[in-house]
Specification:
The structure holds two protein chains of two kinds. Chain A is mainly alpha-helical. Chain A has 24 helices and no strands. The two termini of chain A are 33 Å apart. By secondary structure, chain B is of the alpha/beta class. Chain B has 14 helices and ten strands. The chains are: A mainly alpha, B alpha/beta. At the A-B interface, helix 5, helix 12, helix 15, helix 17 and helix 18 of A face helix 1, helix 2, strand 2, helix 3 and helix 4 of B.
């Protein structure tokens, strides 16, 4: 490899971006003496938080899979009319921030809830474990769905056909051939869902379910105890670290691309019977109701209630701010991620795999702690960047690398190195091979990653609050500000704007996927 | 053909890099000539005020919004490199902590003399508005006659088991517990926490979802701040400063601020810890470089128009005598009497309160 810089630069940036906040946390934590540290760390409450966090993560993963897998299969492998609409149902919840989802579910249920007033339906107010489980599953299942869908589409139909020609019934083909091939996609999506649950504070605080991130959020937001907060943050990172090691261990060294000669066969479509269609539509309708219609209904309801007082100029400014931070962040994230993933897939070594893990660690660092670390170091190292958009974009990019890894890795796994080798043997240089052979083939994955990061950056709160330039209000900070003050009517336009921009992005994603592959 | 599809894939990325470059070049220290405010108060509540201040003085104000603790942590990490000139916090606790960290400067006497009450003995921050702790209740399910004279008697109301809402991790609740500790001693505070805990209260992360839950019938009483109840009963929408200049338009505004909810407020006996005043205050920061503009902003926040605005738009009590207030607020003299009186500087000792809450497994 001659051109080391194209890996070296992203790697250096990710390393600094992730490790600097860690150093900061260790510095703050070490302000406590040993006895104090012991007292802070070993509390019965931490065990309680740990168990709650684990229960919630496992629950959300299970429910998310139960939603995402059938949906992904229906949209890629069945002849169900209206599959495009179903895909939309699978992606649109990404456009709704978790706390909006939680507020909407809370507002819809209960004796005086909107469902009771409009339809006479009295659902108990969601709370605690089940409330958090419902809200989090509904807003994170798209991470699984997107990864699974991509993998199902990109699969070589020939493998399944061989299995069937050897006499396996369809459902056993699915279990023994299709499912195992979905493993990298499932793990990438599942890891994101898990990290999301570990880091969530909006939903758990509204549903009143005690998790690690909730306790940490309360500490940073409401108390002035930086030392205890640092210990708790490090404890949480330790848990995430264990999770990451486990995930890496599970993936191991497997091959998921084609090794033989010839071209891949498109996968066959399964014809759904009448019963299957009814079942599929019912499933989709219930899902759409819970994940899209209830939150959107709440937003539109508030929009109408407050129609007189909307401040459109403010909304336009916030929209501009959101776009100006999220778009460069998404682009930069992809530029950082692509070389990391390419190397870890094509030239797996301890170093490349470690780098990938480190990126996940950045994603798992509690955002407020991450932001404080960035404040501390940027003011000392590059004061000119402090409170500029550049710093915010850099922080976003480093933080969100983990979200981009999954889709890019999954698509790269499906590109056979043979193709690249062929190109090289035809006197194509390494750069040209990458640009002309690899890149077009992983375009779908790149666009998915771009969209995911863009959406997340647009919804991001804690880092935006702490690192944005002065007077810089995004859609998300406005939304948070107003929902916090219970000014739901004033909050509605911002929620709607986030959702609309996100949906637009989802549409672009759609269009590009149709153009690609087939 | 291949070349084209590649171009398509990279197009968004290239665009992003270009915009990032533009951002990098334009990133400059725009705050060098402006007044920088770190504001723990919500943007919705203060934006019209700042607009008016900018118009009247020609001083450009740039704001960072966040929670008190977030801003305080930021100020602490920034140290002497901080660009901030003024801090406006929601709680006495945060102001006290900022003072303890040596972040604040002494304020001139003419500013400190303007508020009618709550001026700290240190003279390093000045009260701007005040809020009060109350017991909110669902009037369809609880009769006010059954509610106690003192918050200390709340644990005796066994009939409310499972029906009490509180916010143990919220700063204003913590200030209240600190007041109980100062007025009644640590043991009494601990006994009170344990007593309420025995009634299996419902813990919320903040007051807004708690008031929504009270309205929805999930709980019957809630230990909260007065303005959350008023915002439910008198939603204010977007109030402009101009709307408050004439007596008639003030009346019209008040008439429009009506909503239906079965929620009412209970004040405890005068001087009870359950009526604690929660003072918001502002301070001039030691590492700021605009002390004169900072002083003018503080002075503006204590002006009649700003004080009046707080009362009508966010239903907080003014601290300057003679401010017109809507009829749904109590007379200012009366609420000052309701709150227990002691040196509010003492509320900065939050550590012991947090320890109490941790021992009780609440934080």
């Amino acid at each position: 490899m001659r051109a080391w810089w194209w890996l070296g630069l992203p790697a250096l940036l990710v390393l600094t971006g992730v490790l600097a906040p860690l150093v900061y946390l260790v510095m703050r934590a070490s302000e406590a003496d040993l006895a104090q540290a012991r007292e802070l760390l070993f509390r019965a409450r931490h065990l309680h938080l740990l168990i709650n966090t684990a229960l919630l993560s496992v629950g959300v993963l299970a429910v998310g899979t139960l939603i995402a897998l059938p949906l992904a299969w229906l949209t890629t492998r069945s002849d169900l009319p209206g599959r495009g609409l179903l895909t939309l149902v699978g992606v649109l919840p990404l456009a709704v921030p978790g706390y909006v989802m939680a507020y909407a579910l809370l507002a819809a249920c209960g004796q005086q809830g909107t469902l009771a007033q409009l339809a006479g339906v009295h659902l108990p107010r969601p709370r605690g474990y089940w409330g958090a489980l419902a809200a989090l599953s509904l807003c994170t299942f798209p991470y699984l769905f997107l990864n699974l869908r991509g993998a199902l589409r990109g699969m070589d139909g020939g493998v399944e056909e061989s299995a069937r020609s050897l006499g396996l019934p369809p459902w056993r083909v699915f279990c023994r051939v299709t499912l195992p091939q979905l493993r990298p996609a499932f793990q990438a999506g599942g890891l994101l869902v898990g990290l999301h649950v570990l880091g969530d504070f909006g939903v758990v605080s509204l549903m009143r379910y005690d998790t690690f991130s909730y306790a940490l959020y309360l500490l940073y937001r409401n108390s002035y105890d930086r030392v205890y907060a640092a210990w708790l943050a490090l404890l949480m990172l330790l848990i995430t670290g264990v999770l990451l090691l486990a995930e890496a261990h599970l993936l191991g060294r497997r091959l998921f691309h084609r090794t033989g000669t010839g071209t891949a066969r498109p996968v066959g479509m399964v014809r759904l019977g009448w019963g299957g269609r009814v079942g599929a539509y019912t499933f989709a309708a219930v899902l759409a109701l819970a994940s899209v219609i209830v939150p959107m209904g709440a937003i539109i309801h508030w929009m109408i209630v407050g129609r007189a007082a909307h401040d459109w100029g403010d909304l336009a400014r916030a929209l501009g701010s959101s776009l100006s931070a999220s778009a460069p962040a998404a682009g930069l994230t992809i530029l950082l991620t692509l070389p990391l993933v390419y190397l870890s897939v094509r030239r797996p070594s301890r170093a490349t795999r470690a780098l990938e893990r480190i990126a996940y660690l950045g994603y798992a660092t509690p955002p407020l702690a991450f932001a404080l670390g960035v404040i501390f170091f940027s003011l000392r190292a590059v004061p000119a960047l402090y409170q500029t958009l550049t710093l915010l974009v850099l922080a976003y990019a480093v933080h969100f690398v983990a979200e981009a890894i999954g889709p890019i890795r999954s698509s790269l796994y499906q590109v056979s190195p043979r193709l690249e080798e062929t190109a090289r043997s035809l006197r194509c240089g390494p750069a040209a091979t990458f640009l002309r052979v690899t890149l077009p083939l992983i375009r779908g994955g790149l666009l998915t990653a771009l969209a995911l990061v863009f959406l997340s950056a647009m919804k991001e709160l804690p880092m935006t609050i702490m690192l944005a330039p002065l007077d810089f209000q995004t859609l998300a900070t406005n939304l948070w500000d107003k929902t916090n003050e219970a000014l739901f009517a004033q909050a509605a336009p911002y929620a709607l704007a986030i959702t609309l921009v996100s949906s637009l992005l989802v549409a672009v994603l759609f269009w590009s996927q149709r153009q690609g592959v087939h | 053909m291949r070349q084209r599809s590649w171009t398509k894939a990279v197009f968004p990325g290239t665009l992003a890099v270009l915009s990032a470059a533009v951002v990098l070049l334009s990133g400059s220290m725009a705050w060098a000539q402006s007044l920088v405010l770190y504001c723990g108060r919500s943007k919705t509540l203060i934006e019209p005020l700042l607009e008016r201040f900018e118009q009247e003085t020609g001083i450009d104000v740039q704001v960072r919004f966040g929670s008190d603790a977030e801003l305080l942590a930021t100020l602490n990490e920034e140290g002497s490199r901080s660009p901030a000139d003024v801090a406006w916090f929601n709680t006495t606790g945060a102001l006290g902590a900022a003072d303890s960290a040596g972040l604040l400067t002494q304020l001139p006497q003419d500013l400190l003399q303007r508020p009618a009450a709550f001026v700290p003995s240190s003279g390093r921050w000045v009260p701007i508005t005040t809020r009060f702790r109350v017991l909110a209740y669902n009037a369809q399910r609880v009769s006010q006659a059954d509610l106690p004279e003192s918050v200390m008697d709340l644990p005796k109301l066994k009939q409310l088991k499972g029906r009490i809402g509180w916010t143990p991790s919220y700063p204003s609740f913590q200030d209240f517990v600190t007041a109980v500790r100062i007025l009644h001693g640590k043991e009494a505070a601990k006994a009170w926490l344990e007593g309420v805990k025995a009634l299996e209260p419902v813990a919320y992360s903040s007051n807004t979802p708690m008031i929504q839950a009270l309205k929805a019938g999930e709980i019957d009483v809630a230990l909260t701040n007065h303005y959350y109840v008023l915002r439910l009963l008198h939603p204010s929408g977007k109030v402009k400063l101009e709307d408050l200049e004439q007596a008639e338009s003030r009346k019209a505004l008040e008439a429009a601020q009506q909503a239906d909810a079965p929620v009412k407020m209970h004040h405890f006996a005068p001087g009870d810890a359950g009526n604690l005043a929660l003072v918001t205050g502002a301070a001039i920061l030691r590492h700021g470089d605009q002390p004169e503009a900072a002083r003018r902003l503080l002075s503006f926040l204590l002006s009649p128009e700003a004080q009046r605005f707080a009362a009508w738009s966010v239903h907080e009590y003014p601290v300057v005598h003679g401010t017109e207030t809507p009829s749904y607020l109590l007379p200012m003299e009366r609420v000052i009497m309701l709150s227990p009186a002691f040196d509010f500087e003492q509320l900065r000792h939050l550590d012991q309160t947090l320890e109490l809450l941790r021992e009780a497994g609440l934080f």
